[in-house]
Amino acid sequence: MKKKLVISTGAGMSAESGISTFRDAGGLWENYPVMDVASATGFRRNPALVHEFYNARRRQLMTVSPNEGHRTLVDLEKDYDVYIITQNVDNLHERAGSAHVLHLHGELTKVRALDDESLIWELPPENLDTTPDTLIDGHRVRPHIVFFEEAVPNIEPAIELVAEADIFVVIGTSLVVYPAAGLLNYVKRGVPVYYIDPNPAAVPAGVTVIKAGASEGLRQLKEILCRH
Ligand code: OAD
Question: Which of 51, 63, 100, 174 is deepest in the core (most CB within 10 A)?
């Protein structure tokens, strides 16, 4: 039976594709006040601004492609049962071909009804822009994004995946946003944990830090895993 390799990715995973991270120098939150464009309060206060922010993110996503790191994660499926938990709202893991991707913070290419959160639509690539007046099947819509101040519905299945992991790998996250940052606490005792990041945050003793970008770090990880 294949081992279960659970991977948790953050913005650094997509950095080499050309999508800015949030908190690095020049990151998104330096140019856009996070509480204006990505919080529940901000959305209530100025929904048009929030729609426009995510329209711009969607347009950018259409111009970029998965990088070597995304492709290495697909390659690892030959030898492992790979499950990806991502904080990223882009679809680069799916476009690279990963089979199991769980989005913690929502998905950029989707919107949902304001009056019924179970109604979710994938936007057509030819019309990715939405406004507070956009109607789909008669419903006003909002970005299918977990705003700050909102619950993270997929954290429960994510915790279950981490608790079942034979190997756990964290890639490209500053580990400041909870509950995602707390996933590390759910690994079983004795499970090897790796953290790939060129500017790693402090992590518990026992975590093997690979100080490198996602593509290079995953190359190194593949070699380490081959030896075991
Ligand atoms: P951050 O911007 O906080 O952190 C990005 C991390 O990526 C940092 O630790 C960088 O060192 C690292 N990094 C930079 N270049 C990299 C590369 N080439 N390869 C690998 N790592 C690299 O982004 P997140 O931790 O993902 O939420 O942020 C978490 C959440 O905060 C996001 O999902 C978003 C944001 O607010 C929402 O919008 C709901």
Answer: 51
Ligand 1 cavity residues, CB under 6 Å: 10-12, 15-16, 21-24, 27, 38, 87, 105, 146, 172-174, 176-177, 197-199, 213-214
pLDDT, the chain, mean: 96
Token pair recorded at residue 43 = 């959305």
Q: Which atom of ligand 1 is nearest to the CA of 27?
A: 2
Average pLDDT over residues 146-164: 98
Closest ligand 1 atom, CA of 180? Answer: 29
CA distance 212 to 199: 8
Count the alpha carbons within 13 Å of 166 in the hemisphere toward its beta carbon.
11
Domain range annotation of the chain:
1-19+67-105+152-228, 21-63+110-145
- What lies within 8 Å, CB to CB, of 84 at 6+ separation is 7, 8, 9, 73, 93, 98, 100, 101, 102
Fold of the 1-19+67-105+152-228 domain: Rossmann fold (3.40.50)
Q: What is the CATH number of domain 21-63+110-145?
A: 3.30.1600.10
pLDDT number for residue 30:
85
